Amino acid sequence: MKGRLDVYGATPDLARGAAERITVLLNDAITSRGVSSFALSGGSTPRAVYEFLGSDEFRLRVDWNRVHLFWGDERCVPQSMLESNYRMVNEALLTKVSIRESNVHRIEGEQKPKDAAMAYEQEIKQLFELKKGQLPEFDVMLLGIGEDGHTASLFPGSAAIQEQTRLVLEVHVEQFSADRITMTFAVINNAVNVLVLVSGRSKASIFQKVLEEENHLYPAQLINPTSGHMHWFADIEAASQLRTLPHL
Ligand code: 6PG
User: For a designed S-S bond to 138, which of 109, 191, 224, 229 qualifies (C-beta 3.0 to 4.6 A apart)?
Assistant: First the structure.
């Protein structure tokens, strides 16, 4: 298994644990560079983390005006739609903290997918001041995994999985008959800290395969930071089929 695995008794504990770790990592980056970058994930488990980060217990522990927020993926819908990852983060976190608009880098899901992907890639290149061929180093890359082993919007069988040059791609997701925008593994695996959240019994089977099998059948098995740190956050239900469950 790559990286560190923390197993929590229940999902709220997992979400609080991840919020605590994210708070520490963002503050470490702010202390050393005066600024930090945080790539957000969609999904219900990540939402629980954003709700903790936006809660009275956490929200004043980070100077959010020193954090640049990006999305690891987005659905190709207007931000007003329930499916929008931006809308979800706005409700759970952005409305609770003081962060200037220019620090919130929303993927324009309402644009044509190809245009939205290109525009977002340019925005990342501009903020990170990337030279040709350089990759951004996100201080925190937060991910979830689906029951089919997808992560971000990198789904099994997608050509986007192999992409190593583009930072952001538009993908068509057959099973949802929907378009999405996603960061590529080139960006994901160049992050300084990759945190992956896995909760609930429905994820137990895929989590065991992702963590303990090397057959590379599932995109989430390709989460492997080049030089950054890997940190899995699971609850006991999601970890229930692991053969090497760490002591609690
Ligand atoms: C999305 C996410 C996706 C999500 C996983 C886990 O936009 O849906 O980026 O990769 O993180 O599907 O979602 P749950 O935590 O809701 O199972």
Answer: 191
